[in-house]
Design brief:
Layout: H1 3-42, H2 48-74, H3 82-103
Helix pairs in contact: 1-2
Length: 105
């Protein structure tokens, strides 16, 4: 394996690891958000306003953190890159070619 191939492999592994960590972070975020929203729904008592303030603070801060994490992980992954367009066009052309050859068989 050439050094350039090793470098590309390590870079790909690093990106996959970062993506995996983001998905774990996001799953935990969704669980905690669901629990905090349920807590906001059932909270009663003398400290109701304090609990609501704390829950909303956690929701806002963690939402900002998850958005920053998502931006860091996906900043290079633009949805419609030129290479994506080229790959999609090639796959559609290949599908059409397969369909055309099936008609005559």
């Amino acid at each position: 394996m050439h050094s350039k191939d090793k470098e590309r492999l390590l870079k790909a592994q690093k990106r996959v690891r970062h993506l995996k960590l983001f998905y774990i972070h996001f799953a935990g975020y969704l669980v905690v958000v669901a629990l905090l929203l349920y807590n906001l729904y059932i909270v009663e008592g003398a400290y109701k306003n304090n609990i609501i303030s704390l829950n909303l603070s956690v929701l806002v801060l963690w939402t900002v953190a998850i958005l920053l994490h998502a931006w860091k992980v996906f900043k290079e992954n633009k949805v419609f890159k030129k290479s994506w367009e080229d790959k999609k066009m090639a796959s559609y052309l290949a599908e059409e070619e397969i369909e055309e050859t099936k008609m005559w068989e």
